[in-house]
């Protein structure tokens, strides 16, 4: 059972990660590239090590899955899923729109999620059955009456596979109504999902996410009244294919799926 103690611990973990990250921001540090060419910095590793040290002491029976240091006890009923810096490219570029992601899953379902921006000191926290908070105050998503004019964001169009691009472009077309002034906001990674929860964006669309990229986002977005699902409208699970939608207004789901499906009508292979 998830309790307020778990939420308090998640906040403590985020505090520790932020303290580890801040000295490296816009400073000189070592950087390497992983096998998939994604960058990893000393800050990623310091933050995850700080979180894991606390978890091993406070919750020795819980599993941990982290982006940098792998998995322990991943078969446990309760598993903490960590991404110390989601948005490493933003971090490296000195943009304070990256975030630390901390999730607690039980039986595979995310029950707690924290999105923490340690430079701006902004934190979204979600817990199953509780309203999402931003720096301790409840937040709500906003209504979105129509797709046209909706606020849409994605980290980068370059992150979509070729096969995903037409669906993405079809959604952008429906939102923009032919005006580039209503096109997407780019950059942002996890930060965009916090902005959906706070009612500043309506739609986030991404593909290629790993479970540690989205586990923490679900309680935050849904606890604020929004919806997270895959590109078929199905709930996100550990087995999801990494194609993710977040909607501030769940009433727009059919419109979004219809717009994205419209792309297939023009492509007969």
Would you spell out the secondary-structure blueprint of this structure?
Layout: H1 4-21, E1 31-33, E2 39-41, H2 42-58, E3 63-66, E4 70-72, E5 78-86, H3 88-92, E6 99-106, E7 109-117, E8 122-127, E9 133-134, E10 137-138, E11 152-154, H4 165-176, E12 185-186, H5 191-197, E13 203-206, H6 211-214, H7 217-223, E14 227-229, E15 244-247, H8 253-261
Parallel strand pairs: 3-5, 11-12, 11-13
Antiparallel strand pairs: 1-2, 3-4, 5-6, 6-7, 7-8, 8-9, 9-10, 13-15, 14-15
Helix pairs in contact: 1-2, 4-8, 5-7
Give an account of the 3D structure.
Strand 6 (99-106) and strand 7 form a beta hairpin. Helix 1 runs antiparallel to helix 2 and helix 5 (191-197) runs parallel beside helix 7. This protein has 8 helices and 15 strands. The chain is globular, with a radius of gyration of 18 Å. The chain has 269 residues and is an alpha+beta fold. The chain starts with a helix and ends in an 8-residue tail after the last helix. An 8-stranded mixed sheet has the order 4-3-5-6-7-8-9-10, sandwiched between helices. It has a 5-stranded mixed sheet with strand order 12-11-13-15-14, sandwiched between helices. It has a two-stranded antiparallel sheet with strand order 1-2. The longest helix is centred in the N-terminal third of the chain and has 18 residues, at 4-21.
